[in-house]
Specification:
The complex is a heterotrimer of chains A (277), B (443) and C (337).
Chain A (H helix, E strand, L loop, with lengths): L2 H5 L29 E2 L7 E9 L7 E8 L4 E5 L6 H8 L4 E9 L2 E2 L5 H7 L1 E4 L11 H8 L8 H10 L1 H4 L11 H14 L4 E5 L7 H16 L4 E4 L3 H7 L2 E6 L2 E6 L1 H6 L1 H7 L3
Parallel strand pairs in A: 4-9, 4-10, 7-8, 8-9
Antiparallel strand pairs in A: 1-6, 2-3, 2-5, 5-6, 10-11
Helix pairs in contact in A: 4-7
Chain B lengths: L3 H5 L5 H18 L9 H28 L6 H15 L7 H30 L2 H28 L15 H23 L7 H18 L1 H4 L5 E2 L8 H6 L1 H10 L3 H33 L1 H11 L1 H6 L4 H27 L1 E2 L6 H15 L4 H30 L6 H9 L3 H16 L9
Antiparallel strand pairs in B: 1-2
Helix pairs in contact in B: 2-3, 2-17, 3-12, 3-15, 3-16, 3-17, 4-7, 4-8, 4-15, 4-16, 5-6, 7-15, 12-13, 16-17, 16-19, 17-18, 17-19
Chain C lengths: L1 H37 L7 H22 L9 H30 L3 H23 L12 E3 L1 H8 L7 E2 H23 L1 H11 L1 H6 L4 H26 L4 H6 L1 H11 L4 H19 L3 H7 L19 H15 L11
Antiparallel strand pairs in C: 1-2
Helix pairs in contact in C: 1-6, 1-9, 1-11, 1-12, 1-13, 2-3, 2-4, 2-9, 3-4, 3-9, 6-7, 6-9, 7-9, 11-12, 11-14, 12-14
The chains are: A alpha/beta (277), B mainly alpha (443), C mainly alpha (337).
């Protein structure tokens, strides 16, 4: 990944008495934010516009890609494997270098902010994997979600427990001991605790059973109907489009089709290529 | 990013350039007499000889680290293992020691090993922790019952001069090989346990075994007289005194325009140097050949991607154990050579900072994974380590010269030899930061 | 009566020294385990930084003594502790800024931090030598004993005496307070939980708005506090020799690993386990047995000592291996810093 990794190759990284690879991060936490910019008139609530870029100094993965979500709506990003769905999400969240394009949220240009400051600006992000603090209790996980808040978090905590009664019963248990579906609920709950203005989910249903998946989708719809815009990447294109107000089909890092979920479901080409007839 | 330059700049000229710089340094040390250099070939060659031994040690560490990525922080222990060999092999037998209790001692050591083997067998067969504990406890008392009286008897045998079991009186060069075997045996024992755990805990295990081996050497007087030191270990080369008594040698020295005393010192050091060079080159040759063989290719494959290698059915732990033993054997050989060069075994001098971590500085500075890098790094760092003791005070004296005389200045001047520790730390940190692949990077 | 005498001998020569030593090891292991959990490497410079911090305590103590400041019956060194912690914290923070932060920014593999800590170890070792030299130093000036042997004998009428040195009581007491404070901090405060969160999942902590650099700074400051306190208590209880601080690196690492690296509770348990085993294995039991089994004659010169005190490092090593063989993740698995 970084140059430094190449220095010793993989030497010594197996010796647990000297190194601790557990929970190691990938985001540079020392990067400082640049200034906020002005938004543009007529912008959607959140928009990543004409984004082009990739990881580090590597080749571009996104090519002039645009993703947007309006207030109170669900937008989904679908596409084949390796199309850059998660990358687009990470680009909006500031986890890779954009060579072109900008990200604007609620009338402000946040392209220069680092991920930490985007959280403070109102973005809630749930990564696809490693999205909980496994050794901390469910309640502590949620408290950590509210880390940036200085007001009383009790009401939000109750709201999250109301939304996910299954994890409410296990609030004192270590999150790492929960089942896959419950972990995802904790992960979404943690993001909700920041009281974000937009919720971004990276494949929230990856690796959970169909029943749990339906339940999660129900919760996500409930969140969106509550007024919180949701942007998510989904592997299960058909289900995702059924609940989407807006859907983006990405192919090789570029927008291939854009429209409401219903429109795309009726689009022959989309059906043929992604939905299996 | 500063580190990118490194990757690009691994030109084939690096090793020769570093080598040339080293050669210039040693020639300066031998010829120029000023506040920086001693101007004595005797000093220069003495540094070089010890540098060559450090280079062999660094080669051993580099085999473990460079080929397999094993982090050995018990180098001092394996050097000490090797150091025991000349004492036990090359020293003349001690009169009376055998009669005093050597057979009983050897029996007790065999019983000790037998108990460990029995414990292992009991565990494999029944998997009962308490049964193993019982075997170990009973075995321990049996061992002490045999061992203690034997030790008392041996140590009571002429304690002022001996009190140890003595050696076999064999040629000292043979003991270098045996030193390698001793270290290999210790490495096998520790590697078998530490590498067999669910994940590696090799670093802490080697740190522990290093301390233990040195503690044994310090405290078991029967073995090598402990802190009373062993002196007059036989030499594989001529003695200065004998050379000076040889009229032909004195005449030859005068022809060259040197005093017999100086020439004899240089002659002895050159003889040592040729022996060390033979060993060094042999080790490098074997190490390079091994690396290019199918075995070496497999080692590199394992190092680069352990999971893939394991999935392909390679016995990763077994290979790691192999290379750990081989590297430790090389370190053991260096340990035996060091004692031979000094003619003295002084257990109190076995300090981990000097014999473990300084070797690591050599390997990292030289270039992890590159044998020539390890050699050049070792000789360079050894030179700096020795000279820092001279340059440090000179530098402090220069810096403090404007200061008024007083307790602070006196304290600074007093402690200036300690500057070498700071200097070595800085060298390591700077290399890690700006040239992390070392002076001569791995190809 | 004989049973009581045996008990007193046991308390005097095994229990009390081991408890004090265990407290020192536990504090040291806590520092190692915190750095392992949050900065993700084993800090080889730990022992030498302890030596350096303790050297500052000693110098400040001497200064205070010269000024005539005293808090009898407590040792003056206690007063010097706070400024020494502050100075050491500044030193480790500067080290972090100059050395480790670069690699953190690069997201370098943890082994590089280990190598860098070896470099820092050399520098710290040299700094300590520059500051105070390599010789033994003393700083203990408080009351020597809370109970001494004679008073105890007169009080109880037993043959055997019990001595409780004030430094031993102080060590255990202070270590206890520090541990409680640390656990309260880690489990109850916002910053402490942020540290645990960062240890669990660095990226997610960042996405929750936790400033990683602040967590790292906090960790170094707490580690510096633990190092200076552990080092000073060790120096007060035994005596101060810089090289000893390098040597206790092994029992400290062993304690941290035995307890499960990254787990503070484990570090404490490991510290006491290692200390009690070391003392018990190297103690000559002949007097205790003499009281308990007067009919048994061990023979002349048999001290009933399992191992000589020189081999106390072997004990921590053997415990380490045994624990790792049977419980590969240490005594306390799961919960981390």
């Amino acid at each position: 990944m970084s140059d430094q990794d190449a220095v010793f190759g993989n030497r010594g990284n197996r010796d647990l008495s000297v190194v601790n690879p557990k929970g190691r991060g990938t985001i540079d936490g020392t990067r400082r934010s640049g200034p906020l910019g002005e938004g543009r008139a007529g912008d959607p609530f959140l928009i990543g516009e004409n984004m082009t870029g990739g990881y580090g100094k590597g080749a571009d993965i996104l090519h002039d890609c645009t993703i947007a979500v309006e207030k109170g709506q669900i937008a989904v990003i679908v596409g084949p494997n390796g199309a850059g769905k998660s990358t687009a999400m990470k680009a909006i969240f500031g986890m890779l270098n954009l060579r072109q394009g900008s990200v604007r949220l609620n009338g402000r240009d946040i392209s220069a902010l680092n991920p930490q400051d985007r959280v403070k600006a109102g973005m809630g992000f749930v990564p696809q994997v490693n999205n909980i603090f496994p050794s901390m209790s469910v309640e502590e996980n949620l408290e950590m979600g509210a880390y940036i808040r200085r007001d009383d978090i009790k009401p939000t905590l109750e709201q999250v427990y109301e939304l996910f009664p299954a994890v409410a019963a296990k609030r004192k248990q270590a999150a790492g001991e929960l089942s896959g579906g419950q972990r995802q609920q904790v992960a979404v709950g943690r993001a909700l605790m920041t009281q974000p203005q937009v919720l971004m989910l990276d494949e929230p249903t990856a690796g959970v059973s169909p029943i749990v998946m339906d339940e999660l989708f129900d919760r996500i719809i409930a969140i969106a109907r509550g007024g919180l815009p949701v942007l998510m990447v989904e592997q299960n294109a058909r289900q995702a489009m059924m609940i989407a107000d807006k859907a983006y089909v990405l192919v090789q890092g570029a927008n291939a089709h854009t429209g409401t979920g219903k429109e795309l479901m009726q689009n022959d080409e989309v059906r043929r290529t992604f939905l299996g007839g | 990013m500063a580190t990118n330059r490194q990757a690009a700049a691994s030109s084939p000229w690096r090793a020769p350039v570093v080598f040339a710089i080293l050669a210039v340094l040693f020639v300066l040390e031998g010829t120029v007499r000023n506040s920086m250099f001693s101007g004595s070939w005797n000093t220069s060659l003495a540094i070089l000889n010890m540098g060559l031994i450090s280079a062999i040690t660094a080669l051993g560490v580099n085999m473990q680290w460079g080929y397999a990525g094993l982090f050995n922080v018990g180098v001092v222990g394996f050097l000490a293992m090797g150091a025991l060999a000349p004492v036990l092999i090359a020293l003349p037998p001690v009169e009376g020691a055998w009669e005093a209790g050597a057979p009983r001692l050897i029996l007790s050591l065999l019983v000790g090993l037998g108990v460990l083997a029995a414990a292992k067998m009991v565990y494999t067969r029944w998997r009962k922790g308490w049964l193993v504990a019982l075997v170990l406890l009973g075995g321990f008392f049996l061992f002490r019952h045999l061992f203690d009286p034997a030790v008392t008897a041996i140590e009571a045998n002429n304690p002022a001069r001996h009190g140890n079991i003595g050696g076999l009186g064999l040629p000292v060069l043979l003991s270098w090989l045996v030193g390698g075997l001793f270290a290999a045996a210790a490495a096998w024992a520790i590697g078998k346990v530490a590498l067999g755990l669910r994940s590696d805990y090799l670093a802490i295990a080697t740190l522990g075994i290093g301390e233990i081996i040195v503690a044994v050497m310090r405290n078991e007087d029967w073995l090598a007289r402990g802190v009373k030191n062993i002196t007059s270990i036989p030499r594989p080369v001529a003695y200065e005194v004998n050379l000076q008594r040889n009229p032909d040698f004195v005449a030859a020295a005068q022809d060259w325009g040197f005093s017999a005393a100086e020439t004899s010192g240089i002659w002895v050091k050159l003889s040592y140097m040729s022996l060390f060079l033979v060993v060094l080159l042999a080790v490098i040759l074997l190490a390079e050949l091994a690396l290019k063989s199918p075995w070496g290719r497999m080692m590199r494959a394992i190092r680069d991607n352990e999971t893939a290698a394991e999935a392909m059915g390679k016995d990763v732990t077994g290979r790691h154990l192999q290379v750990f033993i081989l590297g430790s054997a090389v370190i053991g050989i260096a340990g035996a050579m060091m004692v031979t060069l000094d003619g003295l075994l002084a257990p109190t001098s076995y300090n981990p900072l000097r014999y473990t971590f300084l070797i690591w500085v050599m390997v990292i500075v030289g270039g992890s994974g590159n044998n020539w890098g390890a050699v050049l790094g070792a000789i360079l760092i050894w030179f700096l380590w020795i000279k820092a003791e001279v340059w440090g005070p000179a530098m402090i004296a220069a810096l403090t010269s404007p200061m008024a005389d007083g307790p602070l200045k006196a304290h600074l001047l007093d402690s200036s030899p300690h500057m070498r520790f700071i200097a070595m730390g800085m060298v390591l940190l700077l290399v890690l930061r700006f040239a992390p692949r070392g002076l001569v990077p791995e190809r | 009566m004989d049973i009581l005498n045996a008990l007193v001998v046991f308390l005097n020569f095994v229990f009390i020294p081991a408890a004090a030593y265990g407290a020192q090891l536990a504090l040291g292991a806590l520092g190692v385990t915190l750095i392992y959990g949050i900065l993700r490497f084993s800090n080889f410079a730990h022992g030498d930084t302890m030596a350096f911090g303790t050297a500052i305590v000693i110098l400040l103590t001497w200064g205070l003594q010269a000024l005539g400041v005293s808090i009898q019956p407590l040792p003056t060194a206690l007063l010097a502790l706070v400024p020494a912690i502050a100075l050491t914290a500044v030193l480790v923070l500067v080290t972090d800024r100059l050395v480790y932060r670069f690699y953190r920014k690069q997201k370098a593999a943890p082994i590089i931090f280990v190598m860098a800590s070896v470099g820092v170890m050399f520098v710290m070792n040299g700094l300590t030598r520059l500051l105070i030299g390599v010789n033994e130093q003393r700083m203990d000036d408080g009351a020597r004993f809370i109970i001494d042997v004679r008073t105890f004998r007169e009080m109880t009428g037993l043959t055997e005496g019990l001595a409780l040195r004030s430094t031993q009581a102080l060590t255990v007491g202070l270590a206890f307070v520090v541990m409680i404070a640390l656990f309260w901090f880690l489990n109850r405060t916002r910053s402490g939980k942020a540290m645990r969160a960062y240890s669990d999942n660095e990226d997610l902590a960042l996405l929750s708005g936790i400033d990683p650099e602040r967590v790292v700074r906090l960790t170094w400051i707490i580690a510096a506090g633990l190092m200076v306190i552990a080092g000073s208590l060790y120096g007060l209880d035994k005596s101060y020799r810089p090289f000893n601080y390098f040597q206790i690196l092994l029992p400290i690492f062993a304690a941290a690993i035995v307890g499960g690296l990254g787990n503070p509770l484990g570090a404490i348990a490991g510290g006491f386990l290692v200390a009690f085993s070391e003392v018990a294995v190297t103690y000559p039991w002949v007097r205790v047995v003499g009281y308990l089994a007067p009919w048994y004659d061990p023979g002349q010169g048999n001290l009933m000592q399992l191992l000589g005190t020189e081999y106390k490092f072997a004990v921590s090593f053997v415990i380490l291996i045994v624990v790792l063989l049977f419980r590969p993740t240490g005594l306390f698995r799961g919960k981390s810093v």
